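Please describe our next protein:
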Amino acid sequence: MSFKSRVLAIDYGTKRVGIAISDEMRMLASPRGILPNNPDLISALSALIMSEGIGIVVLGIPKTLAGTESEMTAEVLRFHDKLKASLASLNVTLETRDERLTSLIAETNIRSRELSKSKLKNKSLRDEEAARILLQEYLDSIQ
């Protein structure tokens, strides 16, 4: 059994950024909450990357169901460029992945849990679950 660096997935949103991190074997994705999308986002991500031993960051790229780019795609790509520049000094690889349907699947997964109405309205749950789904799909694809 060889241990590897962990993988972090980001579900980027204009208000919140969902986070998920893999285990060291890169088999299981776990939701790890959200970070506020504010001017400190890149430094907060860098600190998390260093503290968790992250070697790869997977950023979800939103596209329309038809596979075309939207205004949100352009915003995420701008964030990608800033993040890539900051990760270069950390020797961390940045990969992108189509995240179509992850929010819908996340919503379905959350609704299938027996949660109170107030918890069901918590958008942070959907954001971190979307990141977990994005990461699990990535991990499954590299096995």
User: Anything to note?
Assistant: The longest strand covers residues 29-36. The two ends are 14 Å apart (CA to CA).
